[in-house]
Amino acid sequence: MEIELTVNDIQFKTLVEPDEMLLDTLRRLGFKSVKRGCDTTSCGICSVIVDGKLVPSCSYYSVRAAGKSVLTVEGIQEEARRIGAYLTAEGAEQCGFCSPGLVMAVYAMKNELRNPTLADIKHYLAGNMCRCSGYEGQHRGILKYLEVCGNASQ
Amino acid sequence: MQVNKSIPKVDGMGLVLGRPAFTDDLADDNALIVKVLRSPHAYAEIMSIDKSKAEALHDIACILTYEDVPNVIFSRAGQGYPEPSPYDHKILDQYVRYVGDAVAVVAGRTEKAVNAAMKRIEVTYRIIEPVLDFELAKDSKIRVHDGDGTRSMFPIGHEPEKNLAASYGMEIGDVKETLKTCDVVYEGQYYTQQQCHAMTEPHAATAYYDFQDRLNIITATQTPFHVRRIIGKSLGLPLSKIRVIKPRIGGGYGGKQAIHGEFYVALVTMKTKLPSKIVYTRREVFESTYTRHEMRVDIKLGATTDGDIKAIDMNILSNTGAYGEHALTVLMVAGSKTLPLYNKVEAVAFSGDVVYTNKTPAGAFRGYGAVQGNFALESAMDELAELLKVDPVELRKKNMMVEHETSKIFEIMGEGKEGTAMTIESCKLDTCLAKCLEKLNWHEKYPRQQVDDRYVRGVGIALAMQGSGIPYIDMGSAILKLNDDGFFNLMIGATDLGTGSDTVLAQMAAETLGVAVEHIIVYSSDTDLTPFDTGAYASSTTYVSGHGVIIAAQRMREAILEAGRQHFGSQEVQFDGEELICGDETITLKDLSTLLFYSEHQQQLVTSGSYVGKKSPPPYMVGGAEVEVDTLTGKVTVLNYVAVVDCGTTINPNLARIQVEGALVQSIGMTLFEEMKYTASGHMINGSFMKYKVPTRMEIKNLDVSFVESYEPSGPFGAKSVGEIGSDTPPAAIANAIKNALGVRIRRLPISSESVWQGIRKH
Amino acid sequence: MKIEKMLRPSSLSEAYSAYVDNKESVLMAGGVFLRLQKREVPCVIDLSLLALDYVKDEGNLVKIGAMTTLREIETGDVLPQALQRSVCQIGGIGLRNVATVGGSICGRYPFSDISTALLSLGAKLVFYKAGEVAIEAYLEEEHPTRDILIEVIVPKLGKSNFMCFKSVYTDFSLISVAVSYRDEWCVGIGSRPGGPILVKSKATSEKDIQEMLKNVSFGGDNRASGDYRKALAEALIDDAFKGVSEWK
Questions:
Q1: Do B754 and C222 touch (CB under 8 A)?
Q2: ipTM score above 0.85
Q3: What pTM does this model have?
């Protein structure tokens, strides 16, 4: 099936299989930041934003992205660099395989929640798995990032 | 100072920004897709394979079965050579020994085509009754490896006719007699489960030929040099014809310390001359790679009424699954990295068998046996204290290792053979213990606090030790190269798998050279371009490879000074990291390095250094858990986990902290949640992240990690290792905390909420 | 799941005729769990272009379009507490942005937390052809007729609650319970082998949980024993009742 979609402000026209997942389409189009962690919607590593909503691209049919606007880490480099500065200051990115998905989730969270508490942050990011860091370093970094953005509670 | 300083990881920002960095990001977009047809049976002989219908499909490039590949037997374990693991594995075999074992390799242009082809391969199996229960495996009439040429490189107790992959025994003093003289003897049995590494990046490898007709393999491995050696030997290629490149790795924890998909892509590319790649599915990672060794640990502790521990006897049955990678060494570490904690005993014995079963193979996994041994020993210490009616903290204090002491075990137990005697020059267990108790508010909280009629809290502790590399085996090396503009390339064989070792090693190079760390560009690891390193395992990188880096940097510093002497024509030259100074004259390193390339005494400054450890100083840790138990549901919440660590100097305190925090959470997962579950026929039930649950951030309430002042004289800048030590204490500390909260002792992992609930009901 | 062809109808009638004309076709709501099934289907009918994602406040009841995502339910402001609480621990937010209420019901998953809540609330399902069907009746049917779920109607009960027990936050529940009072106690019990059920009880007080559960069987499986599930259910129902003050 032929679809047209926008990825990070670039318009694409591409052929997709009916059972193709957005993850595969995006990687094929060159957006290698999008990683496959589980293939069962369980780890959040493949997270991208479609029309403003955080979705696991491993479980999002590509045909459904037709006419929609997709955002990956490649499309929010400046903000990713800001978030990344706080994550790396804690060493919390570790192997980095889950980092692009986490950055997308943090970006979505910042747009969606006003002044989240640590509990709100953890609930929002609960679907973003990390096996290296033990999470606490991520939380230290994210809290500081939100504080600097003027979007943290207290 | 560039060391003992928290700086961001040198690769961190690039990874966060999503730059192509991992194996699958770097593979040729047109690489053939390689997949493996896997056994649906736990044990079977392949009577026939008909691949003709599959080969006839469009877009299929090649299909390989055991009939098409070299019939060689080897070990996939990425360990020192000759390996202390049995040679019991073939690339593809006529026998399949667990559900998920490889049957055929299919390569095609698209995933769709390969999937279709896999369905058309017709395999006739002669199903053999499997041996699945590891407690019934030894001497079973069913043999997992039977007359298939399985052998060992040197004596490791390998007796395939008894289903033994390895076995070991040692005794210091006379344990039986000493136990008879003890006032109190505690005897207990503990079980630990198969745990999955669950690294986020699945195993992946890609192969292609370069313009020199050499086979290049990019692979997510912890041991690129072992990969080159094992691939070369098993495929009959001279090592000079193979280049192995390790890109960034999405976690390993021991799970990538072996050969997995590398054979398949190598063979496909050798046959088709086309680039190929394999990316394991998550199910394959669970079912067809590695697990932590399942163990049964029997332990006896004998003591006087005064609380002097006089004898320890530890006996282990370990399950290596279908293949024996790391079988002996993981078994031995369960004793050698726990028993020396209590070094004042008169007698100590350690023995064990590692059995083959028809389950997913076990392999290296962070902690490497010490986690299992620690669960038994540190639970047993609390149980002994209870028998003795003494405080478990006091019992430990009285018997634990103290700085400048030693243990005979260091000399006797090594990497599958005898070890290396050493005196402990840094051991701050006493400080760690005091600080941990203080942070836990132990004196107020021990043993329990009733929250209300439903919830109760308890605290528990455990001590731990690990090692820092394997003496006289683990070798690390480095090359430093000075460029014009005054920056350096640091090329290391050490394999950063997400830990931050590239950064830590750059910090050591910078500190030794006296330059800013920004001037060091790190590259790891590539068998063509970087010098040898045994690999990222055994907590060796900081300690062993770090020394190699320091030696290279010392030589580079001397080479820079020598170039300065030539430049100034004087022996009186100093280097302050930016400038070379000779009396009133100065030249920046930046300018000197450019002169050295283009206009004056032209030469390339390049130095190297390599190092093999002479000892393995243990890092120490005290872990303390505060848990809350819901007595109606058995749910255990770890409210706080305190870790106080002695790892010598922390080269990068942030990264050291994250290493410990990450290890704690993996181990809390093992303690409470994680377990491979099988059907009666040996099929894994929960082989997905949907069903195999690693802790989410919601399970983690508070981690309190700190480091005590400590300096290891033999270590680089006083450092010891920190990669594994964080894994060891959670099982015992949490089990002890639950016991203190409820009076219920759980001796089997994982401590599921149901097992706690059952315990409460029976109590 | 391997899909040969995907249809993306833009009207319900088009979708319905495609679905009944081709007996091998499969309806796709969010697709999250559907795609994990190991089968090949010749035709999938995508329901995402039918404008079925909405939450309408209609006084004493709420109409929820079948394609409304779990996240929309979680963050909606007029929905009963039991329903909102039932979705917020299903996977991560990404999953909840894709999975839908309709898919959760019609997938008839034994682990469904949402169906447990909807059973307790006495939700009605509106199908394209069959019209209104009580969710209880729908879930009891062994082979429901081929029809398209359009809407879920939920009474706007002021007092209802939901609790689940998961070993890890994003896991499937070992047991889930939902409670409400609609002339009698209506207790939904889910994540038991056999799927979610509704228990109605005339027990005099919310404290009489034993009475409510007397005829409920709790099966065991590889995740939990029946006895343990029962103990969890008792504790959770008690918690659920305690979470709301003054029931009647």
A1: no
A2: yes
A3: 0.98
